[in-house]
């Protein structure tokens, strides 16, 4: 009985909106989507351009004579390197996946007591977390280096992974999302005899799935494209432990003649984060649309 008024209301709203309005809305959204796709299309086009087209003036947006020579040249560059490309790929995938998984788990486990257990001093700790969001990565570079050195983790995978585990954004996002979970749901689970550990893994984490999937995108993007490269320059010295963004960055030292392979490398580095975003975009939209709701 309660659902019938809502059903009639939805039908009424649908009838009030004309086909012209729907068409106009579709055209506006299509134009906005096409505009946002311009950088991606340009990057794909640039990666397929032969070297002579890259330096045309005025520059061309769409490639005229597409070729895969840039990708072939990229493989030749690493074929002559004493560290194979597969090693760089393994290092990047290992650091990105392990760092992302560790960050999501630790941020969620830290956010749960702050959001639901009302710990003494919890508000002060969360205030410190919020304040830490204002610091740029360059500000924390020296403290991170001193900490990694003190732990004896320099020149290892952990030198790249450990700083990513303590990113403040993950704790902030997970706490804000967990606060929306009704306390009655947790109390009912405790009455049924569930432990805090089981409540966290069986109830809390499935409910906040959109939030931690969003966090996966942010954390993975940072480790895959930029974060690991910035840290790798100062924390990792062995060439065997370098990541792809560092290896591709060395291509720039070859000058203009390597502009084609560099465009191919940039496209490869972008495809993985974009693919992950496409697979999880529904959860990201759900997180953003419900982040301001309260019980």
UniProtKB/TrEMBL annotation:
The entry's localization annotation reads:
Cell membrane
Query: What phylogenetic lineage does the species belong to?
Result: Bacteria, Bacillati, Bacillota, Bacilli, Bacillales
Q: Which InterPro entries match?
A: MetI-like, MetI-like_sf
Membrane-crossing ranges are 21-48, 88-112, 124-145, 157-178, 199-220, 262-280
GO-annotated cellular components: plasma membrane
Q: Which residues form the ABC transmembrane type-1 domain?
A: 89-280
| Keyword Cell membrane annotated | yes
Q: How does this protein lie in the membrane?
A: Multi-pass membrane protein
Q: Which BP terms does GO give this entry?
A: transmembrane transport
Q: To which protein family does this belong? A: Belongs to the binding-protein-dependent transport system permease family.
| Protein name as annotated | ABC-type glycerol-3-phosphate transport system permease component
Q: Which UniProt keywords apply?
A: Cell membrane, Membrane, Transmembrane, Transmembrane helix, Transport
